[in-house]
């Protein structure tokens, strides 16, 4: 533990920390451009120069290990002069276009030039200009502004695992380019925009859209995958302008996926902004009263068992609870939140959670992936697994469709039968998993959606139990289910599943097609086969005119995730609250309020009028909602059902990362990404790429 | 106007003139304040400063030694007639694009695109 | 060496080491442990450059990167960083005139000018007969013998107008001029002859003692 003195303050730090990290520990700010806590140390911007006693020259704080007895001054005349000099050099070739630069107002160079720079330039010679580079539809480049910190290069290589950005040339002629001038093909590519300390890499869709100081910042939760990444929603007026990550060590560190970041333009398109009622086969605009009356008429004389409800992938816990209470009041046991038909077992909480937790991945020693491609289903989680692989060479075994995960994974086959071999200890992978201290498995939705999903779930449990993934003595639970829908865990937690004698999603659709079910309530459920609903009266409550709304007889306009204060439970079982960033468009309302109002019309008033009251009800239903933001470890139990396995290979749970839900399907940016990246991947796969 | 003002005007004021709105302009007889004569106006009706025409305004603020009656008489063709402030009245100014003028919200880039069923 | 990343035209579509060079590549790769295979990148790039004839095609860089197990962009970074790698075809002889401070003080401007007029090309160009490519170089570390040029892998030092012309003339004629100082001195001994450590004087001293 070296002990050093920084600006007269004595500090003891762990061995291996740099001077800069030691400074941060005691709250002394050292300016920097290239240094980033989550990237490797490059030491090439030279901005963090500090004065080190007995050193003839100032030293780079970010690359200099702290040593015993060092006396560091961060604010002596020598250090100030050195920083001023570095800043002057950086500004030599940096254009003075802050007024028209998107980074203006949130630019590291701007801020640090103000604090540590000179008040005038002395450079009168010609500046260099660099041609723009193509990095795809998401990243806009303005390479003359680049100061060569190489954060983007290190991010691409280390975190994203897609080494397609590089710095070519040397000295003044150095330029940042992408491999073959192709689009940067990572699902996390948008993060280089945040990392860029200047305006060289800026957001394409957000270009020239707003200034940072005119945006209203709302802390919220992402729902476009099941991780519940912490985000900040930046809005102006009625419009969400952009989404940025919030630091959360437990979930997303400080990264978010491109879908989370860029799908928000979908919030402005295809919005349901008023109720509709089907009259003579056509949906006509209606008032709330007319829509509720139409629902009341449709429910007249219909018994409880003839009513069903399905919740979609983006539904929040409050609205699902309200719908569940309403269905109970109407006497219907037919409700399901697993619109994809996944054979998740709601009886045991540990059986549908990512029990290791996302941060816990960093402790894992081996990983078995069953029917999942975390790179597509949860890119931020994949970055975490990659981090573990970089640190300790995590061995990864993959059962399912072969996929490039950005780290080496041993593909052992695409056959559910392999699970039996592993569970029985006959497969060599079983020995490898058993031999390490903390093995984990990740069970994907591709495995659970199959008809034999329950049998696979049971086999996965057996694998977890027999191969030492359950080690309560060291606090390790290596059984993990990776969800693809933000609503799923919350739905299972509040019990939005068939009651006794009730039908599940497939059963509801079949019964509706057969005429046994007369009324179907879809809470944002768009991923079901709506053509199979037969002549049933369909009520669709949601925010986008997608498959469900097209089939509906009554459409009720709900709120999207940026427009309501609601709770979602992520794949780890962590309940998190979102906040209202903008108001729902037109007549649209927060979803639980719609259900509360409808219940009154139907004569079975739900007993809550405020968000607080419904939060209390939520807590009563399941105590996990008491601790927002915390993971309550789930007790292990019996889940899944033994059964015959299917011989068919696994099919990917998500075929197109950029379009998975009504919001991203409505997004123009995501459509462009699909065009560029998915088409390119297909080309590469079939080998037609030149 | 208060009694005090009225009394002061009666005792010390000398009427200089009256404008088209009926406002009467006074100056002090003899007494000077800060080295110059006092000038004031008694409004007709409510005290509304925008009813003071330019020719009188200049005099009132000591910009001109005399009311600019001659200048006012030779009004240019582009000069508009003086009228009191209309803010808060139905005749208030509404720039083009104002929702108050048309009663309709003009579409902007930040509007959402509603779903319209087939 | 050129950082211009404009699409390189006239690129051969494929590259493979010749049988002989493939064996050499294997030998180079064997020098490094498996986890440090990327260290072979530079020697292999040099090998590929020699095989192609003085420059590196994109296909060659990609091939070498695949051999070393590094991302292709990293190979491209290395190839553009070092001035020893050429990314465009060059002439039979690569004339690199040092114009850094020592050579410049000793008249490198004149040397460069002579090269330009003698070859009839500008800096960065290749003669029509494909014999010479002319480039400026930063300090090549032979300051005691300034001004100097590097032609292919040889240094020609202590130049003046006539001497560089003689060297170029000889190369043009297809003969190999003697590398090193062109004014007759041995390596970097003083131009005026040795003043100390003379063999005779040393011998005399030894004898006298």
Structural class assignment of chain A? alpha/beta
Q: Report, as a whole number of angstroms, the end-to-end distance of chain A.
A: 55 Å
Number of strands of chain A: 28
**Mind describing the biggest β-sheet of chain A?**
7 strands, mixed
Topology of chain C as a string of helices (H) and strands (E): HHHHEHHEEEHEH
| Radius of gyration computed on alpha carbons of chain A | 27 Å
* CATH class term of the largest domain in chain C: Alpha Beta
Strand content of chain A: 15-25%
Task: State the helical fraction of chain C.
Answer: 40-55%
The CATH architecture term of the largest domain in chain C is: 3-Layer(aba) Sandwich
Strand composition percent of chain C: 5-15%
Mean pLDDT metric of chain A: 94
Count, helices of chain C: 8
The gross shape of chain A turns out to be globular
Global geometry of chain C: globular
Name the biggest interface. A-B, 22 and 9 residues
Largest sheet of chain C: 5 strands, mixed
Query: Largest beta sheet of chain A: what is the strand line-up?
Result: 14-13-26-25-24-15-16
Q: Let me know the number of strands of chain C.
A: 5
Architecture overview:
The complex is a heterotrimer of chains A (690), B (118) and C (209). With 690 residues, chain A is an alpha/beta fold. Chain A is built from 21 helices and 28 strands. Chain A has a 7-stranded mixed sheet, sandwiched between helices. Chain A has a 5-stranded mixed sheet with strand order 2-1-5-3-4, sandwiched between helices. The longest helix of chain A has 19 residues, at 668-686. The model of chain A has no long low-confidence stretch (mean pLDDT 94). Chain B has a domain at 3-76. With 209 residues, chain C is α/β, with parallel strands linked by helices. Chain C has 8 helices and 5 strands; from the N terminus they run H-H-H-H-E-H-H-E-E-E-H-E-H. In chain C, strand 4, helix 7 (161-172) and strand 5 (180-181) form a beta-alpha-beta unit. The longest helix of chain C is centred in the first third of the chain and has 12 residues, at 19-30. Chain C starts with 18 loop residues before the first helix and ends with a helix. The relative contact order of chain C is 0.10. Chains in contact: A-B, A-C. Chain A binds chain C through residues 157, 163-170, 173-175, 177-179, 181, and chain C through 3, 5, 7, 71-74, 76-77, 80-81.
